[in-house]
Design a protein that fits this description.
Length: 72
C-alpha cells in the first residue's frame, strides 16, 4: 500500500483487492487503493474518513468497475 494503515475495510472484486479508509497514526482517513496482484494504485477518496467500518461486495452489481475506480 502507498499509505500504511490499520482498521481498513477491504473487498475483492474482478480479481483486485480494494482497501478503503482506516487509521494512519491516530487519524481516520478516506484514501482508497487498489491492488491488481502486482502493484498498488491510489483510487478515489471517500467523501468522509472512515475506520473500522464494514464493507460488503455484492456479486456483479451494475457499474462496479466505475464505482470502485472513479477518481475524485
Amino acid at each position: 500500500m502507498h499509505i500504511p494503515r490499520l482498521n481498513f475495510d477491504a473487498v475483492v472484486a474482478d480479481g483486485c483487492i480494494y482497501v478503503m479508509g482506516g487509521h494512519a497514526s491516530e487519524e481516520s482517513m478516506g484514501n482508497c487503493e487498489k491492488f491488481d496482484g502486482k502493484s498498488w494504485t491510489p483510487i478515489h477518496c471517500l467523501p468522509n474518513p472512515i475506520a473500522a467500518g464494514g464493507a460488503v461486495f455484492i456479486e456483479k452489481p451494475p457499474h462496479i468497475a466505475q464505482l470502485l475506480c472513479r477518481r475524485s
